[in-house]
Amino acid sequence: MKTPVQVMKFGGTSVGDAECIARTAQIIAGASRMTPCVAVVSAMSGVTNRLIESAKIAQTGDAAHARATLEVLRAQHEAALVALVKSETNRAAVREKLEEVFAEGRRLCEGTALLRELSLRTLDAISSLGERLSAPLVAAALREQGLKSESVEATECIVTDEYHGGAEPLMDLTRAKSQARLLPLLANGAVPIVTGFLGATSDGELTTLGRGGSDYSATILGAALDAAEVIIWTDVEGVLTADPRLVAEARTIPVISYREAAELAYFGAKVLHPKTLKPVVQAAIPVWIRNSFAPERLGTKITPEGQSIGGGVKALTAIRDVTLISVGGPGIVGLPDVVGRTFSTTAELRADVLLISQSSSQNDICFILSAADAQKTVEALRKEFAEDLKHEKVEHITVDPNIAVVAVVGENMRGTRGIAGRTFSAMGRENVNIIAIAQGSSESNISFVIEEKDVKPALLALHREFALSQPQS
Ligand code: ADP
Ligand code: ASP
Ligand code: MG
After folding, report:
1. With helix as H, strand as E and coil as C, how does the chain read?
2. What is the CA(163)–ligand 2 centre distance, in A?
3. If I label 187, which of 24, 111, 386, 422 is the partner at 20 to 30 A Cα–Cα?
4. What confidence tens digit (pLDDT) does each residue in 221-242 have?
5. pLDDT (tens digit, 9 = 90+) per residue, 131-149?
6. Ligand 1 centroid, distance to 223 Cα (angstroms)
């Protein structure tokens, strides 16, 4: 039997200012009157970017500038505190907590400025300060509503490997630690407010799960606590048929499968961190995506099997911050291990390859990865193939950053005739040039590479072609 715990996560915009935090606290309070709740919170919106900016400024040696950036954040959190908490005594206790975090931030920036060196470990420590500031504010807002609540740092719950900037949870240890820390609070009738985005190694060293990683924190905790469900509260009404910033007529998808949602997340639908569904698949815990600005709406339910529309397209997505790398030349035809060596290199760097395409004459392998991983990958490939480049077996390793990948997602697309044809005819009509295509073995997506400037017209044309603004039955 699952314990009826509900894990809720609130993203940056849902805790963006005092008014948003108060609304979030109301949602948590409402739910926790019905069932035990654990909330996971992101930093106030924009704060993580600012913190990373301060870290980079500190790296140049400019400690005063980094401190000034932290001061701006201090004023922002102080203003939220004053607006949320009425009594000065209650404020003082929270302020003390916030001040400790800011003092730590200042020390980290000063150390960085002194050494002019920013290790991944220090970057993690600085970039995660935002969650350590927002969690005490949300807990205070809940106490203002008469509930028991306490902020909890996820270093006390989520145990990860040592991969700074994109750490992976160690689930057995996480389970034991999360239950030991959170269940007594729940038993005591309190609502734990856990910092998203971060964890710690088994030695207690702080790590982060990657940008946008608070979604992942929520499902990690959901799995660790055998939650009945995980609700991700954000600023849109669920998973939509396309990014609403690009396709105005995009519509909420009421039910979607883990697989479809994971494909969308993997190919850039920002509403979900790509790894979000991984922890909950085994226990089949449903995940909801809901709008904290319109809590009366149901949003999207992500379930193991979703809701069949008899095969066909459910949604579109595009990922822009990507780079195309190609390794090739006529000489690689006779080199059986080029593919192996190329992808061992990317694996060693933990660079996520989004799409691979190889020409039939085998003289060109091209693949797409996140722009952030491009430079280190190209450097490593040039090293790996140095001898072959010298002897012209491999003629070139080239890089194209001005591209994007579009993915057309739906269950059982391979079994539905004509989808690829319609997709590419629509692109032809829009004069969108297709650089590479991958349908791969996955039945649930067709993805292809286009020039970055074509993303919006491509999405609009496909949304129309597959009538995605009509309710699907
Ligand atoms: P949070 O701060 O709550 O984590 P994010 O900004 O990370 O929120 O994600 C929500 C945003 O994702 C939305 O505002 C929307 O612009 C974008 N988005 C991209 N693709 C989709 C999609 N298919 N459905 C819903 N939102 C999407
Ligand atoms: N605050 C972190 C970020 O901006 C994590 C998150 O919001 O999910 O990346
Ligand atoms: Mg997010």
Report:
1. CCCCCEEEEECHHHHCCHHHHHHHHHHHHHHHCCCCEEEEECCCCCHHHHHHHHHHHHHCCCHHHHHHHHHHHHHHHHHHHHHHCCCHHHHHHHHHHHHHHHHHHHHHHHHHHHHCCCCHHHHHHHHCHHHHHHHHHHHHHHHHCCCEEEEECHHHCCEECCCCCCCCECHHHHHHHHHHHHHHHHHCCEEEEEECCEEECCCCCEEECCCCCHHHHHHHHHHHCCCCEEEEEECCCCCECCCCCCCCCCCECCEEEHHHHHHHHHCCCCCCCCCCCHHHHCCCCCEEEEECCCCCCCCEEEECCCCCCCCCCCEEEEEEEEEEEEEECHHHHHCCCHHHHHHHHHHHCCCCEEEEEECCCCCEEEEEEEHHHHHHHHHHHHHHCHHHHHCCCCCEEEEEEEEEEEEEECCCCCCCCCHHHHHHHHHHHCCCCEEEEECCCCCCEEEEEEEHHHHHHHHHHHHHHCCCCCCCC
2. 17
3. 24
4. 999 999 999 999 999 999 999 9
5. 999 999 999 999 999 999 9
6. 23
